[in-house]
Amino acid sequence: MSTTAEPEAELFCPGHASCPGCAVALAVRFVLKGLGPRTVLVIPPSCIAVMAGPLPLSSMQVPVFQTAFETTAAAAAGLARAFRARGEEVTVACLAGDGGTHDIGLQALSGAAERDEDFIYVCFDNEAYQNTGNQKSSATPWGAWTSSTPRGKPTRKKDIVEIMAAHRIPYAATACPAYPADLLAKIERARTLGGTRFLHVLCPCVPGWGIADDASLRVARLAVESRLFPLYEVRDGLRYTITHEPVGVPVKEYLSAQARYRHLTDEAIRQIQEDVDQGWARLVGRARALPPRAFA
Amino acid sequence: MLTQVATRHTRILLTGDHAVAYAALRARPHLIPVYPITPQTPVLEKLLELQELGELTADIMTVESEHSAMAACIAASLAGARVFTATASQGLALMHEMLHYAAGGRAPVVLVNVNRTLASPWGFWADQTDSLAQRDTGWIQLYCESAQEALDSVLQAFRVAEALLVPAMVVIEALYVSHTLEPVEIPDPELVDEFLPPYEPPVRLDPATPRGFGGTTAPVQWRANRLALKAAMELALDAVEEAGRRYGELTERAYSSVETYRAEDAELVIVTAGGIAGTAREAVDQLRGQGIPVGLVKLRLFRPFPSARVAGLLAGVGKVAVIDRNCSVGSGGIFCQEVRAALHAHRVTGPQVFSFIAGLGGVNVSADRVMEICRSALNAVSAPPDPILEERL
C-alpha cells in the first residue's frame, strides 16, 4: 500500500451543515486536500450540496458550481474544456452522491467517459437518497431497508466501478474515508493522469443506515475487511490492483451493525456472504490476470 | 467609412443553417457543445467543416444529448468562455430544464433553434411551438425570416446576451429558412470584432477568487435573483435596438425588435413572425397593387415582448390579422395572445384583432394564402373570439 503525506491545507471549512458523524463530510475533506487549491468543483443536488452551504456562504475554499441533478459530468466536461480553451490549468472535480451517479446522472457520466473528458469524478456512495430522507437508489444493496423499500430492496446493487471500467477510462478506483491514506493516494494518482478518472467512495450514513453517530468509520472498516467493499483500482479498464488486503471478517458483523439490515434472516445473511465471497474471488482473479503496470 | 462597407463582406449562397454556422465562426466562440437533430444537423456539419479547414478555432464538443449540451454550455459560460449551440424541436424540449438554469445562473449562452414540429406524431416540418413553449425560461428570443437575418441576429444576440448576462435564442423555421439557399453577406472578421467585444464576465468560476455558484437560497434571495433577471431582461428591449442600429452602421443592414413594412395608413395590418413575414411582404405588395391598403408588422423580438412598441404601432389601425404558425392547445395562437395582451395593457381599444392559425405542421403558407387571410379579415364585420383556422377559409 502506498502512502501519501496528508496535505495540511484545509479546503473544506468546519461549520458546514452535515449530520454529526457523517462519513461523506470526512471523505470530502480528504478529497479536497488531495485535489488542492487549483480546483473547481461541480456538485449536483446531494448531501455534498448541503455541506457546500446555502448562498451566500460556501464551506469550500475553491470555486463551486452547483449544477442540475443529471448534469454533473456534462457540466464538468464543459468546464474543463472552457479552462483549456482559455489556457488555464485547473483541475475540474465532481463531488456527487450515488443517486446522482448511479441513477439520474449515469447517461451524462457515460457520455463523458466515452469522450474521455478531463475531470476527476468522485461518487460518495451512502447507498440511498439520504438527502431526501433515505429512499432507495440503484446503489442500495439487496435486502437493505429504505423508506421506499419497506420490505428490503429486492434487487442487487449496481456495480458502478465495473460500468466505468467497461468504458476503459484511464483510472477507476474504490476508496473509503476509514482508510484516508489509501484515499489520498488514489486522488494523487488520479491527478497524475488525464482524461476521465472515477473514484467510488463508500460512506456509511448515520441516519440512513441506522448506526450510532460515532460508528460510521467502524462500519466502513467492516465493509472493507469483510471483503464486501474491497479497496482496489482499475487502470484502463483492464488492470486491477487490490490496494488493501482485507482480513476477511464474516459479513454478518458488518450487517448486524446496522438497523437497515435488522430484518434479515440467517438464510439471507448466508446468501449475502456467498455473494461477497464470489465477488472477492472474481476480483482476485482479475487482479492476477493482468499484472499492474507501474504508474508513470 | 460607409463607402467601405461594400468591400467588407463576402457574398455567397447559403442555407439558413449554413448561415448560422458562419455567424458562429465570426463570433469566435471558445466552445460549441452540440448534438445533432434534423433539421439543425447542417449547422453542426458546417461547423465541423470550418474547423477542419482551420477557419473555426472553437472546440466542438459532440455530446450525448441536448440536455448535456446545454449543461456544458452553462458551466463553460460561467467559467468565462463564449459558447454557442444549436438544436431543434425535441432537442429544445429536452433542454427545457437547463434553459431555466442558464437564465437563472446568468450564463449568456447563444442558441439557434430550428423551429420543428414536436412529436407525437413525428414530423420534420416548420412549427413554432417548440421555441414558444420556452417563453417563460428567461431567454431572449429573436425570430428570423431569412438566412441573412439569421446570421446577423446570431451576432447581435451575442452582443446583447453578453452585455446583460441573459441567454439568447435565435429562431429560424425548418426547411423554409434552414434549408433554403439565399444570397447571404458574411461580414468580415474585423468588422465583427469591432461589433462584438470579447466576453469577460464580471465574476466567473476562477480558482483565484473562489465563489459558490448556484447554491441554495432563502426565499428573499431567490426573489432578488429572479427580479434581477427580470430587470436585465427589460434592458434587452433597448439593447436589441442598440445592437440592431450599430450593426446597421457597420453593415448597412439595421434591425429592430419590431419591423414594419408599408404599414402607413394601412386599413389592415398583418402581424406575424419568422418565415411567414417574408411571404407576407409579397402579399402586401400584391394587395397594395390592387389598391387594398394593407401593411405588415413583423415581430422579431418575442422575449422580452416589445409590448409598448407593438401597441404604439397598432394604435391607429382598424384591423389586425395575427398569423401564428403555432397552436397553444386550449388557448390559440401564441403571438396573438401577446399582441392582445399588449393592446389591452396599453389601453389601445381601437383595432379589431383577428387570430389566424396557419401553416401548422409545416403546411406551406403562400402569398395567395396570406392574401386570402387579409381579405377574410377585411370582409368580416367583427373579429371572432376564437382563432380562425386558415384551412377553413
Which chains share the greatest interface? A-B, 45 and 42 residues
Q: For the record, what is the CATH homologous superfamily label of chain A? A: Thiamin diphosphate (ThDP)-binding fold, Pyr/PP domains
What is the straight-line distance between the termini of chain A? 17 Å
CATH level 1 name of the largest domain in chain B: Alpha Beta
Number of helices of chain B: 12
Count of domains of chain A: 1
How is this structure best summarized?
The complex is a heterodimer of chains A (296) and B (393). Chain A has helices at residues 23-35, 47-52, 72-85, 98-103, 106-114, 160-166, 180-192, 206-209, 216-225, 251-256, 266-289, and strands at residues 39-43, 64-66, 91-97, 119-125, 171-175, 196-202, 232-235, 239-242.
3D structure, described in words:
- The complex is a heterodimer of chains A (about 300) and B (about 400).
- Chain A has about 300 residues and is of the alpha/beta class.
- Chain A has one domain (about 25-290): Thiamin diphosphate (ThDP)-binding fold, Pyr/PP domains (Rossmann fold, 3-Layer(aba) Sandwich), CATH 3.40.50.
- Chain A contains eleven helices and eight strands.
- Chain A has helices spanning about 25-35, 45-50, 70-85, 100-105, 105-115, 160-165, 180-190, 205-210, 215-225, 250-255, 265-290, and strands at about 40-45, 65, 90-95, 120-125, 170-175, 195-200, 230-235, 240.
- Chain A has an eight-stranded mixed sheet with strand order 2-1-3-4-6-5-7-8, with helices on both faces.
- In chain A, helix 1 packs parallel to helix 7 (about 180-190) and helix 3 (about 70-85) packs parallel to helix 5.
- Chain A is globular and about 60 Å long.
- Chain A starts with about 20 loop residues before the first helix and ends in a 7-residue tail after the last helix.
- The mean pLDDT of chain A is about 95.
- Chain B is α/β, with parallel strands linked by helices.
- Chain B folds into two domains: about 1-250, Thiamin diphosphate (ThDP)-binding fold, Pyr/PP domains (Rossmann fold, 3-Layer(aba) Sandwich), CATH 3.40.50; about 260-390, 3-Layer(aba) Sandwich (Rossmann fold).
- Chain B is about 40% helix and about 20% strand.
- Chain B contains twelve helices and 16 strands.
- In chain B, the strands form four sheets. Chain B has a six-stranded mixed sheet, sandwiched between helices.
- In chain B, helix 11 links the parallel strand 14 and strand 15.
- Chain B is globular, with a radius of gyration of 21 Å.
- At the A-B interface, strand 1, helix 2, strand 2, helix 3 and helix 5 of A face strand 3, helix 3, helix 4 and strand 9 of B.
- Strand 2 (about 65) of chain A pairs parallel with strand 9 (about 210-215) of chain B.
